[in-house]
């Protein structure tokens, strides 16, 4: 009797019946054929095609078993990697999802008799992390893909760099606190107060206001008046109690305030530089094609402390940035961003001060002064080395 047509009711019925899983004992792995009942499986075993497959398998049974074992292992690990990743999961859950596929390789055709044997073998080979619990065996996939390892190393490097930036910020804050404490202690040491006391209750306290010495060109009347005053003050000074002498610290402060000519010239030059820098400084610093770091927490942990590239500056104080790791674009205010200090030898852009919009090369970092030494790479002063504060330059993209 000929085979039924594809769209005949019998053919459609056969296809409906063949859908889904059937009993494992009526499946022939060599021929990869699933029978629906015992009679069908018996007829298949007596067929000529099945007999030929058995003859081929009898010649080299190890070859076929290794082939089916390798197929089973590859499909099982691929499902574990794509479906569960590196999560810890029960081995029976993965196996049930694996056998739900109708064309899967059956375990009875492999070198492993049970799922537990296969799980132990995965642990011995280092393909998975396995552990036995009262609820059964659990497995965890070990991803050894070179691309995944490279991505993990990149994430570890970024995390370390973020920690370095945080440590640098912490040092900056500690240095500011230390300077404030030192300045406060110096002011307290300089301010010395003396108490006005009398040695005896009967004596009076008198203040001797010494008059300036008169010159020889003054008139005789002035000399006469000064002589009268001196005679009047003589007895008072002899009977009064003198005020205690001021401590020697005041004299030392006077001496310390005196500056040499060189120090005065240097101070004048420094004031000129401050005036020049304040004249060209602005309260906005954003520039295109620089690397910045997001410091606001309003966007969530996904973007906090992450680096981005400024694509476009909006109205001087805002910018459209593109995240380096994810590629997302955000519009942020400059108060939500901060500059990025690269490693020595990298190119930077000066964002504020007299050298604004000048490209430079980072030579070194001075953590005590919170500044960096840059070599100008453009402009009329190309090749000069200048000291720029951390917040006045950033890494070029």
Strand content range: 15-25%
What radius of gyration results from the CA coordinates?
A: 45 Å
Alpha-carbon distance between the two ends? 76 Å
Q: Assign a percent range to the helix content.
A: 40-55%
> Major sheet, described briefly?
5 strands, antiparallel
Major β-sheet strand ordering: 9-8-7-6-10
- The low-confidence runs, each spanning 5 or more residues with pLDDT under 50, are 213-255
The number of E-state strands comes to 15
Give the topology string: H per helix, E per strand: HEEHHHEHHEEHHHHEEEEEEEEEE
Structural class: alpha+beta
User: What is the average of the pLDDT values?
Assistant: 77
Structure at a glance:
With 397 residues, the protein is α+β, with helices and mostly antiparallel strands. 43% of the residues lie in helices and 18% in strands.
Question: Could you explain the architecture of this structure?
Answer:
With 397 residues, this protein is α+β, with helices and mostly antiparallel strands. The protein is 43% helix and 18% strand. It contains ten helices and 15 strands. The strands form four sheets. A five-stranded antiparallel sheet has the order 9-8-7-6-10, with no helix packed on it. Strands 14-13-12-11-15 form a five-stranded antiparallel sheet, with no helix packed on it. A hairpin with a 4-residue loop joins strand 1 (27-28) and strand 2. Helix 4 (61-84) packs across helix 5. The protein is elongated. The two termini are 76 Å apart. Residues 213-255 have low confidence and may be disordered.
């Amino acid at each position: 009797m000929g085979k039924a047509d594809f769209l005949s009711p019998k053919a459609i019925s056969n296809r409906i019946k063949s859908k889904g899983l059937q009993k494992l004992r009526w499946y022939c792995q060599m021929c990869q054929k699933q029978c629906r009942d015992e009679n069908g499986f018996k007829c298949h075993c007596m067929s000529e095609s099945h007999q030929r497959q058995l003859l081929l398998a009898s010649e080299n049974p190890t070859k076929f078993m290794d082939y089916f074992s390798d197929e089973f292992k590859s499909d099982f690990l691929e499902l574990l990697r794509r479906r569960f990743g590196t999560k810890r999961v029960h081995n029976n859950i993965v196996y049930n999802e694996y056998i739900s596929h109708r064309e899967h390789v059956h375990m009875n055709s492999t070198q492993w008799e049970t799922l537990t044997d296969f799980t132990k073998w995965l642990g011995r080979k280092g393909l998975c992390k396995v552990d036995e619990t009262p609820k059964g065996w659990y497995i965890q996939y070990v991803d050894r893909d070179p691309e995944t390892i490279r991505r993990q190393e990149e994430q570890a490097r970024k995390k370390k760099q973020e920690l370095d930036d945080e440590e640098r910020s912490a040092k900056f804050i500690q240095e500011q606190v230390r300077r404030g404490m030192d300045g406060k202690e110096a002011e307290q040491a300089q301010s010395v107060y003396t108490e006005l006391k009398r040695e005896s209750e009967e004596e009076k306290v008198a203040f001797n206001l010494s008059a300036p010495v008169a010159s020889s060109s003054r008139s005789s009347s002035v000399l006469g008046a000064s002589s009268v005053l001196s005679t009047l003050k003589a007895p008072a000074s002899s009977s009064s109690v003198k005020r205690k002498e001021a401590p020697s610290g005041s004299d030392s402060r006077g001496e310390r305030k005196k500056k040499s000519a060189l120090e005065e010239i240097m101070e004048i030059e420094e004031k000129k530089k401050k005036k020049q820098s304040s004249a060209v400084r602005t309260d906005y610093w954003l520039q295109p094609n620089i690397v910045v770091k997001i410091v606001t927490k309003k966007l969530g942990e996904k973007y906090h402390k992450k680096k981005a590239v400024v694509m476009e500056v909006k109205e001087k104080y805002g910018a459209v940035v593109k995240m380096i790791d994810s590629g997302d674009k955000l519009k942020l205010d400059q108060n939500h961003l901060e500059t990025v200090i690269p490693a020595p030898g990298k190119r930077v852009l000066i964002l504020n001060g007299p050298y604004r919009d000048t490209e430079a090369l980072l030579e070194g970092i001075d953590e005590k002064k919170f500044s960096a030494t840059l070599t100008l790479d453009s402009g009329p002063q190309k090749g000069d080395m200048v000291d720029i504060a951390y917040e006045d330059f950033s890494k070029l993209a």
